[in-house]
Write a structure and sequence with these properties.
Structural class: alpha/beta
CATH topology of the largest domain: Aminopeptidase
Number of strands: 11
Number of helices: 16
Helix content: 40-55%
Largest sheet: 7 strands, mixed
CATH architecture of the largest domain: 3-Layer(aba) Sandwich
CATH superfamily of the largest domain: Zn peptidases
Number of domains: 2
Strand order of the largest sheet: 1-2-6-3-7-9-8
Radius of gyration: 26 Å
Oligomer: single chain
Shape: globular
Strand content: 5-15%
Order of helices and strands: HHHEEEEEHEHEEHHHEHEEHHHHHHH
Amino acid sequence: MAWRLGRIIRVILATLAVVLAVCVAYGLGSMPKVVSATEEAVFSAENVAKDLAVIAKEPHSVEHPQARDRVRSYLVDRLAALGGNPRLYAYDSIAFRLGGYFDIANIYAEFKPESGPASSYVLFIAHLDSRYREQVLDSTVYSYGAADDGYGLGTTLELLRVALQYRQDWSQGVKVLFTDSEENGLNGMKEAVEHNPELLENVGFVINLEARGVKGPALLFETGMGDSKVVDLYAEAAKYPVTYSLTTVVYKMMPNFTDFTVVKDQLPGLNFSCLDNIRYYHTDWDCFENISLPTIQHYGAQLEPMLQRYLTDANYACVDALKSEDNSVYFTLPWVGLVKMTQTQNRWFAVVTALFCCLAFALHTKTRIIRPKQVLCKTLCLLGWGLGILLVGEGIAWLAATCVGTPFNVAATKFIPGDTWIGLVAVLAVVASVAGIFVRRATKRPFFANETLVAITVLMTVLGLLMTFTLGENFFFMFPALLSCIALILCLFILFNYLSIVAVILVLLMACSFCYNLFTALTIGALGVVLMLVFFYAVVVVGLLENFIRVKVVND
């Protein structure tokens, strides 16, 4: 009777842990609340919205010179009101990729400390043009530029407003560059670097603000070369951080560019963007009515404390203070924070995980809880199932794109109605299938869960080692593998078996947030990749839960 009561309690605890972890991973307590415009001392998304109402009033692409002039004039007035003495830098005869030529003009403003010129500045970059004509299925549309790049423009203005309140404490200064014709090929940024390099003098830190969607978290998705010190600043100061070093690696492989691309190899910096929903990106849905105040507030929550640290800390007075020869490996755990390692530490992390995997395998083999041959077979089966799920997921994405009539692309399949629901249903189907198999098989074979859990741990460890020595990234395999290894070792002792539920929570925090950001970044075109990862994570989580609920494996 006591054993049954104990199992019921464990089922309840496991259910609560899973629900809590999923809720936190998707924003509960891990995203900032929107601050009212009446709170003048802090960053407010409501203030940014006031600017967006003007900026996104009409399309202002390079095909709309008069509308673009109105946006430029408004930005000049706003910067002047803040005391920045803005100047225009004009460049003519810019070739339009759709034919013809046009003129452009960047906006530059500088804010010095009250004590005078600074030896080091942070440079904010955002672009003032919206997207030119875009073909959406059978229609030609124009973006209003509310998110891309109204979020960047408005966020910069609001950050300045707050920072100027403690200007007397500044040791460093602020430069602002609102570029023109970013959408046409980074023209404004390229012209500035080529013809007016003085604008970048004494710049020790670059922050570029973009948007690839209209909602969701503001993701730090790219850093420059030698990012160790700048990531340290982000990790120490930013609130509600959301970032993965993997995105910097992946972004290098994609045919996408931002203004930051032009300077990222010369200056230390960070590149931010929201990613959800790409169907709105570069279309007439990128309008004021679709802006997300929580997303805008998230930009501010990360950037405001980081900006204050940089401006007021004398350690950054040297323009080279954030330069480094080393790159970092890092990922976010919602509610926990940023996990950061050097590349050397990351390799040791992989080696230690492999050693724990061997230990867990040896202990469970010695106690005859698992059979080595069965583990090997299941490892290969899990790999096969994962690859099969990948192909099925990509097939679903291709079929959806074909039915709608939009081009299929693994990294950018747009304009599919209900793509989020398709992805959600597919994910739930994979999770339900894994849970169903575990429940059915575990009732027939007492050690099924352990053999399968060891097998998936071995598989993820091997994949993680391969990723470590190819891309230098491995957290999405190695982190769950390490937690699973520790849980497998400790589950041999009844008092430590409760730690399996801690492992479940940490795996879910990482897995849910990572898969969400991966899906929104790469779109439904990468559905197969996401589903394969979901399958691997589901096997780990369900295996840990089964181990936890069964009380003590060796007594089953």
